[in-house]
Amino acid sequence: MDVVDARAALAPAVSLVCAALVFAAADHTFWRRFFSISAALFKLGIVMSMLPGALKGVVYTFELVEFTPGVALAFRADALGMFFSVVSSTLWLLTTIYAIGYMEREPNRRRFFGFFALCVSTTVGVAFAENLLTMFLFYESLTICTYPLVIHEETPEAMKAGRKYLAYTLTAGAFVLLGSIWTYQLAGTMTLSQPGILSIESGRTTLTALFACLIAGFGVKAAIMPLHGWLPSAMVAPTPVSALLHAVAVVKVGAFGILRTIYNVFGVALLKELGVCDWLAALAAFTILAASVIAIFQDNFKRRLAFSTVSQLSYIVLGAALLTPLAATAAIVHIANQAFAKITMFFVAGAIQRTTGKTTIHELAGIGYRMPYTMGAFTVAALSFIGVPLFAGFVTKWYLSLGALEADAWWYVVIMLASSLLNAAYWLPVIYTAFFKPPPGTNVEVHEARWTLLVPTLACAVYVIFLGSTASVPGMPLSLAQAAVTFVFGM
Amino acid sequence: MITWPPLLALLIAVPMTSAVLTPAIARGSARRAFWWALAVMSVASIIAAMLIIRVSHEGPFSYVVGGWVAPYGIELRFDEFSAAIAIICLLGTLAIIFSKEYVTHAIAEPRIPYYYTLLLLNLMAMIGFTVTGDLFNLFVFMEILSLSGYALVAVSGERIAEMAAFKYLVMGAVSSLLVLFSIGLLYALTGSLNMADVAERLDGAAAAPLAVAFACITLGFMVKSAVFPLHVWLPDAHAIAPSPISAVLSGLVVKVGIIGMLRVYQIAYSSGAVDMTGLNTVLMWLGAISIVMGAFFAVFQDDIKLMLAYSTISNIGYIVMGLGLASTYGVIGASVHVFNHALIKATLFLGAGAIIHQTGKRTLSDLAGVGRAMPFTVAAISIGAISIVGIPPTAGFLCKWYIALGAMQAGRPFFAFALVFGALFIFIYYIRMVNAFYFQKPKDPSILEVHEAPATMLGPTLLLAALCLVMGVFGRLPLSFIEPAVNRLLAPLGGG
Question: What is the pTM of this model?
Answer without folding.
Answer: 0.89
